[in-house]
Amino acid sequence: MEPTKKEKFISVIDEHKRIIYKIVNSYCPQREDRKDLEQEIVIQLWNAFDNYNPKYKFTTWMYRIALNTAISFYRKEKKWYQKNDFFNDESVFCLEDGNNVEALELSANVKLLQEFIQKLKELDKAIMLLYLEENSYEEIADILGVSTTNVGTKIGRIKVKIKKEFDKIKSHGR
Amino acid sequence: MEDKEIRELFAEYNDKLDSVLSLNKASIEKMKLNNTKKQTNKILILRSIEVVFFLMVMIVLGKFTADHWGVLHLAVSGIILYVFALIALIGSIGEVALAAQIDYAKPIIEIREKIEKINMHSLLFIKLAFLSAPVWWTYPIVALAYFFDFDIFPHLDAAFVHRYIIINALLLIPLIWFLKKLSYINMHIKWVRKTINILASANTKKAMEFLNDIEEFKK
């Protein structure tokens, strides 16, 4: 039997859950708000699902919607996203060790990298997430709507900042 | 910390997530997704109401000007206010057009610019208020004539009117320069930032700062 639209949608979200989860964690410093942003991204993806043009890469389409939603949410632009009436109390994503990303057993350096990404400005955060997700400069430029040269320059600058941040922490013996 | 090390850290994070992250399908099932599509965009409605309001104002002012065409000061006052209403109407139509183009599947910079330009909409009204300062007399003249059928102009002192017209005409150029400067691309200028802080709402200021960040980002 042919899967329904909802089944197809759920399978797509399942396939890309890691990306959405990381976007939510990077743009939502408050743990208690994360459920709302997860659901908001799912709703925006669902509403745009019928209009997805297979001519383009699925991840490009998904990144754009998830990041645009996350930035609006982060900037508390409530008028630009759906009302909470459709939200429920459950998280869209679950972690084996409970719904707490802080509880994940990650190395100190990974946690530092996460913290650093959270502290970046909205657009820098997007570019860094896309870069670390192994997207090419062309893909990042396409998702953001800037030139590849611009992407290269930005990534270079952010990496210098990360390096400095890590060096500073090392020298303080954290 | 080299690029390779940063990527390795992120790969470690990915590996960890792959082993512990799962999708709560029941949560999506519960979401009543089919109903969410019918949500109306509040901004689009608000701006459309604004368009209707300014259209009505223009109809009233157009009729006022036509009715008083033979009385120079009333006709001129009516035309001046008509032009202001027209600028506001064009601004609001532009906002409706921008709001209708908001599609999260489009490139992030393009969408953020459109959203923030809509968010800083109140700046247009601040500018219009300033621009109308040299011709503020048009407001009482038109209001009194329209609502009370009373023409105040013949009761004004002629010397005062002449002085007023000359001073305000001289003020016009610096005022236009000042208003041109009040733009998000000038947010790095201290006095522009301070003026925006005083005159604009927190949302307008936030939108202007973000548009300025976008400009920087594109460099």
Automatic annotation (TrEMBL), chain A:
Domain named RNA polymerase sigma factor 70 region 4 type: residues: 112-161
Single Gene Ontology MF annotation: sigma factor activity
GO biological process, one term: DNA-templated transcription initiation
Keyword Membrane: no
Domain RNA polymerase sigma-70 region: 13-78
Keyword set, alphabetical order: Sigma factor, Transcription, Transcription regulation
Pfam families to which the protein is assigned, alphabetical: Sigma70_r2, Sigma70_r4_2
Family per record: Belongs to the sigma-70 factor family. ECF subfamily.
The protein, known as: RNA polymerase sigma-70 factor (ECF subfamily)
Organism expressing this protein natively: Maribacter caenipelagi
Automatic annotation (TrEMBL), chain B:
Transmembrane stretches, start-end: 44-62, 74-102, 123-148, 160-179
Keywords: Membrane, Transmembrane, Transmembrane helix
Name of the protein in question: Uncharacterized protein
